[in-house]
Structures are given as structure tokens and as C-alpha cells.
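note to self — DONT lose this again. spent like an hour looking for the file last time. sequence + predicted structure for the chain T wanted, 246 res
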Amino acid sequence: MTALHGKIALVIGGTRGIGAAITRRVAADGASLAVIYRSRADDARQFIHRIEDGGRAVFAVQADVSDAAALRAAIDTVIARYGTIDILVNVAGMSENGTLASYADDAFDRVFAVNVRAPFIAAQRVAAAMATGGRIITIGSIVADRAPGEGVTLYAASKSALAGMTRGLARDLGPRGITANLVQPGPVDTERNPADGPNAEANRAPLAIRRHGTPDEVAGLVAYLASDEAGFITGAVYNIDGGWSA
């Protein structure tokens, strides 16, 4: 497929789980690639080598997205390499679950630094270098719409903020032909939430389609939103959740 041929894509959090699937898909669709990853450098390098073995070059930068200065520097390094970025996909996120009373004093700042501030900084930095027709896609969570149980207050709050941010970006960047959209997965079979894990059955209980989704299914939706065909879609929230929200 060549739907993204000639495009330059940056996937933040693009070497594991859903992020890795998105990186593979945009590579298969013809985009030139950059990824920002935080940790597990050996695993990241092995993943990148597999993409490169398939014939696509990958420019990788290691940075902790919770560090605003480090994130800005990493993005600037990518822009210096390519001159522009056509597609930004924000995937990196974190969860910190617990009872309301158990959250540490700095828990709010830590969760929001990764889940909200980092996508905002990335959008702000990348948009400044984007040409007409750029795409900003953020990966959120269906937990923003429906908390599955106790212990997710901070995570749900942070993911809920992304919808408002996406609508604001759509308005701010629409005059330049740049779209901004949010993808909210439900249970997806990843290392963090395996389909055979201890909480898998409970995770599937609210679904109309009683299985975990796959990272490739999420990546397929992202690839569409990144394509020219999605040029009139902006400020939208897409739930890919097996009917969790039905």
C-alpha cells in the first residue's frame, strides 16, 4: 500500500503495543518514519531493525515524554532531520490506579505530564513545522467515557482531557488544513492488557463483541485518519471498543 507515500510520520511511543502496530502500518503504507521511545532501548532497537529489514528507514530518538524539555528537544531533532512532519501520532501514556485516598501527592502531576501535557507539547511543536494537510492523531482510552470500576480516577480524568484538547486543536489548526482527531480504544491485547491476563474476562464483560481488540485494528483506524481520504474529518472522537460504549 502507498496511501502515505511521501509523508513523514512521527509516532511518539511507537515501539511497543499499539504504538508499534501504528509504526508498522504507516511504514507499510509508505511513510518515512520517526519514533520517540522512552525505555527498553534494546527492545526498541530490535523492533526498529525489523521495520528497516522490511525496507523502511526509521529515525529513532529516546526521550522521556514526562520531561517537557526533553520532549521538545526530541521533536526538534526529528524536525531538523526531515524538515517537516506530516503526521503526528501521540501514543505514549501511563496509568496509575488506586483508591482515591492512596494517590501520592505528586500522582496528579505525573499522570497529567505524560497523558495530557506531552500530547499538547507535541502538537504545539509539530504544528509549527507542519504544512497544509497535516494530521494530528492522539490515542486516548474508552475509560474517558466510562470508568470500568474503582481506582481509575486519575487515568480517566487525564484521558477525558484529550477530547477537549482535540477539539481545540481542530479549531486552531483547521484554517491551515491540519486535522486533529482522537482514537479511544477499549480493551486491546497488548503486554499491558493481555487477552489471557488475570483481568481479561472482566475487561470483556461490557463489550458487545466479546474479545479483546488487536493493535492492528487500532492501527488501521489511525492509518485511515492519517490518509488523504480523511481530510474532512477533524475534532472527532473515534471509539474502537468492541461496543463498550454502545
